[in-house]
Write a structure and sequence with these properties.
This protein has 250 residues and is α/β, with parallel strands linked by helices. It contains 8 helices and 9 strands. The longest helix is centred in the middle third of the chain and has 29 residues. The protein starts with a strand and ends in a 16-residue tail after the last strand. The mean pLDDT is 96.
Length: 250
């Protein structure tokens, strides 16, 4: 039986790579995002009837509800939810951060994620499906400038564990995938389009790619239904844990 996945944030990076990987693996896929032209471009890569693009702002709860209710019947029975949409804004310490950026990260990385999840839980329970949430190594390892972004990803980690507990006995699997450095548009968005900053971050580091994470998502989703991966933490070999900080002479 063909399975159906809904992937948020499908217009770039990990999201679009995951769409490609799942369609290649025989899944039907709903991809969401704000940029309709990118969703239309994705659709042109796949056989007709294998991908449905739903263009809306995931932070708009009414638009989210309308898009989910408007799914074509052949895409409506969701077996897998991939909560990929998210972002980081700013790199400065908390005392210099923009509170608007903080609110945007909380709205996108937390509130939108829990809203989509809650709306799809009845379908996922009915299908004994799976939820894969994209967290980050920032949820575990702090770094200067991570502040609210790291806090939102720590929420995603803990929310995943809470879902796993609440969904006990339903057959629904829940996984938190927590990547380190992945070269996507992430840093461009975080720095307001500073390409030099993005290039400098990834230069010579052989970072993970969107395709790497998409393979992990596909593997996790394809495991037998009695197997649950609770948390999958991954980094490029070039990256390791941050050291402690010591301020002297204060």
């Amino acid at each position: 039986m063909t399975k159906i996945a809904l992937i948020t944030g499908a217009t770039s990076g990990i999201g679009s790579a995951t769409v490609r990987r799942l369609v290649a693996g025989g899944w039907l896929v709903v991809g969401t995002g704000r940029r309709k032209e990118r969703l239309d471009g994705l659709a042109r890569n796949f056989p007709a009837g294998t991908f449905h693009g739903a263009a809306f702002d995931i932070c708009d709860r009414d638009a989210t509800a309308a898009a989910i209710e408007a799914l074509p019947p052949e895409f409506a029975a969701i077996d897998l939810l991939v909560n990929n949409a998210g972002l980081a804004l700013g790199t400065v310490p908390a005392q210099h951060a923009d509170r608007g950026d903080w609110r945007t990260m909380v709205e996108t990385n937390i509130m939108a994620l829990v809203d989509v999840t809650h709306r799809l839980l009845p379908r996922l329970i009915e299908r004994r499906g799976a939820i894969i949430n994209l967290s980050s190594t920032a949820a575990t390892y702090p770094y200067t400038g991570g502040n609210v972004y790291a806090g939102t990803k720590a929420f995603v980690h803990q929310f995943s564990l809470g879902l796993r507990s609440d969904l006990h006995g339903t057959g629904v699997r829940v996984t938190s995938i927590e990547p380190g450095m992945v070269e996507t548009e992430f840093t461009l968005i975080r720095t307001g389009g500073d390409k030099a900053a993005s290039d400098n971050l990834y230069a010579g580091s052989h970072p993970l790619t969107g395709d790497d994470i998409a393979d992990m998502i596909y593997w996790t989703a394809s495991l037998p239904p009695h197997v649950n991966i609770n948390t999958l933490e991954t980094m490029p070999v070039s990256q390791s844990f941050a050291g402690f900080q010591v301020a002297r002479g204060e």
